[in-house]
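Dear colleagues,

As part of the handover before I leave the project, I'm documenting each prediction I ran so the next person doesn't have to rerun anything. This entry is a single chain, and its sequence is reproduced below.
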Amino acid sequence: MHLDQKPDLVVHCDWSTDPNKRWMAVAHRESGRWHIGEPEPVGATADFLQRLRRRASGAKPRLFVGFDFPIGVPKAYGEQTDLIDFLAALRTFGHGDWSNWFHPCDDRTQISIRRPFYPARPGGRRRQHLLTGLGLANGEDLLRECERRTPSRQAACSLFWTLGGNQVGKAAAAGWREILIPNLDQVAVWPFAGSLKTLLDQHDTVVAETYPGDVYGQIGIARRPVWSKRTTEGRASVAGPMLQWLETRVVDATDALTASISNGFPNGARAEDQFDAVVGLLGMLDVIEERRSPGCPGEPALVRWEPKAFELHPPLDAHVTLTATSFQASFHWFKRLTLQYSEFLKHCHSLKDECSPRCPVPYPNTQRPRGGPQCEASRRAGAAPMDRA
């Protein structure tokens, strides 16, 4: 992806339903270099994009803004709405017959295509209620392709499930209502409005979904040994790859930012949000500087509800891109396999489930998935098949 003109300002926002937990990292371009300071609060959303434009240099500033809330809906759901595509849906949700779309259902009987979020409160609520209410076949239909399980991470939570610590539905609803919908005539939403190159070359403001959790591996942050982004010690333990990233890019970081990274962002309750704001920004800059593909192949003319861009790029050094809506699976860990294992992979559980605790094909996590059929590689190793859960 070669850009005719790079953005003047690249911004990554770590989002939350709580305005006090919304933080952004900002990079502005000057004399061919990117300048990055410490994370800062997002602030009021009513004039958010206008404030960013005033910060950008040039008579006609160009912005590239990433948010870590979902942008898009599951294809199986979208096709039941009778709307043209996701951008048309954004103009419809919350109005007329769709006026209750953003309001979580209190009872399973309220779930419908025009009111899909559930539940409003705990107590006897099950995901099966969503499937039944939305007329979907299985749990996979509640997920966008990018949210489904990969060999390197578990499946994400469904957009429409609004209960629990890992739910994203409420944050997405807030982001759409506060950022996307009020500014639809002023922004281009990638990838629904076109390829990233086309949008960045032709529009003043481009918005995209990001996924900091996938960016970790892109910038060299390993998942093992286990670390936690929720602790200062955990964030400090992965400072090395972030500092190395800054040293090897055309970037100038403030002393305050490098100190925060080195010390694990020791800023209390806001530190985790600041950490992810910076990580996401680094991933976005790698795409802008053509170090990484944006992930959605060509002009996504057929993209209506969610991009279909799950690609495995041979050889075994494929990567994950910056977005959650469109990504490529990370298989750097495959380099540990011997040639005999690469042959096993052609026949062993299609990279989905391990068939036995003694299966010779390694996975990147220590907790092995259960329930897969026994494969030829496992039988050769003398392992007993797993019982299905």
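DSSP finds 13 helices and eight strands in the chain. The radius of gyration is 22 Å.

All the best with the project,
I.
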